[in-house]
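Memo to structure team: turn this sequence into structure tokens by end of day. - J.P.
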Amino acid sequence: MTLEAIKYNGKLQILNQLLLPTETQYEDILSVEDGWNAIKAMKVRGAPAIAIVGVLSLAVELSPKKFKSKEDLTNMIHEKLKYLTTARPTAVNMTEAANRLSTLIHVVCDDPTSTVESIRERYMQEAVDMLAKDVADNKSMGHHGAKSVLQQCDADEKVRILTHCNTGTLATAGYGTALGVIRALHELGKLERAYCTETRPYNQGARLTAYEFVHDEIPATLIVDSAVAMAMKEKKLSAVVVGADRVVANGDTANKIGTYQLAISAKHHGIPFYVAAPTTSIDLNLASGKDIVIEERSTKELTTVRGMRVAPDITCWNPAFDVTPADLITGGIVTEHGVFKPEELKDKLMGYSNKKLKSSED
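Reply from structure team:
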């Protein structure tokens, strides 16, 4: 059975990831408010999945609704998409999707031949297309990332990869970003073993990544977050591959808290450090990591586990993400277009964007 975090066939369901691995429960998303709450509560998480669920939650809400004019429909789409970006602001994919779709729908609305129905249908199709595009992009990233990792190893050598948080099928429409690289290596018969961190405080690595590895029969070992330096010293790791919630123009990368310390340790041990990020996770509008807004979450995530108190009443600091400086990303940034050094990322992606624009004009 294939894992699915998101199910959509006119109706939208999400796998409640707070209950994994002990329960598999899908929940209906009937409105934008449902989508916003599911994202905020981390029932669905992972930057690509957040954007897809957000956009599809609006599709579900639009489907039965009647509008007096196409301008009313367009304004509603714009306002609802803007609202969805506030659920978890560090992850850029929802903002990218909101900006792209708002611009597109305004252009369609300005066409004198457009109608309420044609605008609604265009939005619905764009939303559905995000599912297939995400899977295709992830498989492309997996191919590029696996190729780059293997180029740094002996031809007959199998590799050992360390990853952090969850970046697989459960964080995307399918296959995964950093886990997509690991999957590609496994499919090639070149993966000896993957190592995943538990990823406190929500334990996405222990609950979700380990669950995916076991489900897909990928050889893997779970370690505590504080064992990463020892693992790098003792386990002969070939590379570290992580995902990203936002990569900015200079290559600085926001990802799950704990990523920064992995990068520091990897550099000390001479282990290539990769970030796997689709272009929808790359924000060229921000110059550096200091401009990224870092979400801070409830202290209860540190002091309680499933409602049971595990720490005294103490002041807590609970940033959900940290920022890894570009100079620590020594392996490269893996995208659907290829693997790039942080310093060349902006120029490379602008080149692809210009080619795409020229192609559409032709």
